[in-house]
Amino acid sequence: MAAPVVLPALARWAGAGLLAAGLLLAARPAAAQNTRLNDRNTIGWLTNTTTLRFAERWSGHLEYQFRRENGLADWQQSLLRTGVNYQVNDRLTVRLGYAWIETFPYGDYPIQAAGRQFPEHRIYQMATLSNPIGRVEVSHRFMLEQRWFGRFLSPTSPDPDEWVYVNRLRYMARVQVPLSQPGPGGRGPYAAAYDEIFLGFGRNVNENVFDQNRLALLLGYRFGPAFRIEGGFFQQRLQLPREIEGRNVFQRNNGFIVNTVVNLDLRRSTPATPAN
User: Is 91 exposed, middle or buried (0-12, 13-18, 19+ CB in 10 A)?
Assistant: First the structure.
């Protein structure tokens, strides 16, 4: 009985702790701001997230993100994420999943020194906790990632020369507010905002403890329980995992994001037994 009370409190404390840690870590490179290299890019992200419910508490997760640079002209990243969700209760959902990512060279300073696109495999564990306040939807998402990315040491290497393993912790806080009295199935417009911080840890992280931060300001429309669409301003602040001539490199990427969210219930109701 105490779980609905304790879990939101834990989320608030954990979220505040992660945010404070991220701000402190971000402040460290800020102290050396005069020596860092800044790379500014204009990005556009198109994403789709589909949830396939196949049991009362179980569902599948399928997600693709089409991430572009120079608006939508050039590739930034391609991301495919899959997983299996388990709904612990009305407020807590956990997920175990796998993701495949292809990152392309873009901007003034490519992520890898060889200037090549490179693959990445991830296994991840995630927990999403909802904590509504009246009509305002508030959610906290915690994600732990185990990442293996291919590193090219030469521009002419046919395949990655080595695979590098890193860990990453992510925390996202999201607030969503209806802009009118919701209709049947929650139909109606809404405004939303979220911020997500990424922190690296463990071996091979080196100076890249602060990995990145993402901020979005969105307007959306829910057409019913099965579909909604949202879009708006998107900002990404990213630190490269390498230095150039002893200087840290920070990307300052601004642009837009459009998200489509689909929820499908694959369960079939048991047909009624015909009367004799």
Answer: middle
Number of domains in the chain: 1
CATH number for 93: 2.40.160
Residue 271 belongs to a domain: no
Instruction: Give the closest residue to 71 by CA, choosing from 207, 269, 253, 228.
Output: 253
The three-class DSSP label of residue 135 is coil
Classify 62 in phi/psi space as left (phi over 0), alpha (psi -120 to 50) or beta.
Answer: beta
Q: What six digits make up the tokens of 118?
A: 């490179």
* Enclosing domain of residue 114: 3-265
Q: Which residues of 113-146 are buried (b: 16+ CB within 10 A; e: fewer)?
A: ebebbbebebebebbbbbbeeeeebbbbbbbebe
Classified as helix, coil or strand, 271 is: coil
Q: For each of the chain's 276 residues, which pLDDT tens digit applies?
A: 444 444 454 455 555 555 545 555 554 444 445 688 999 999 999 999 999 999 999 999 999 999 999 989 999 999 999 999 999 999 999 999 999 999 999 999 999 999 999 999 999 999 999 999 999 999 999 999 999 999 999 999 999 999 999 999 999 999 999 999 988 888 999 999 999 999 999 888 877 799 999 999 999 999 999 999 999 999 999 999 999 988 999 999 999 999 999 999 999 754 444 444
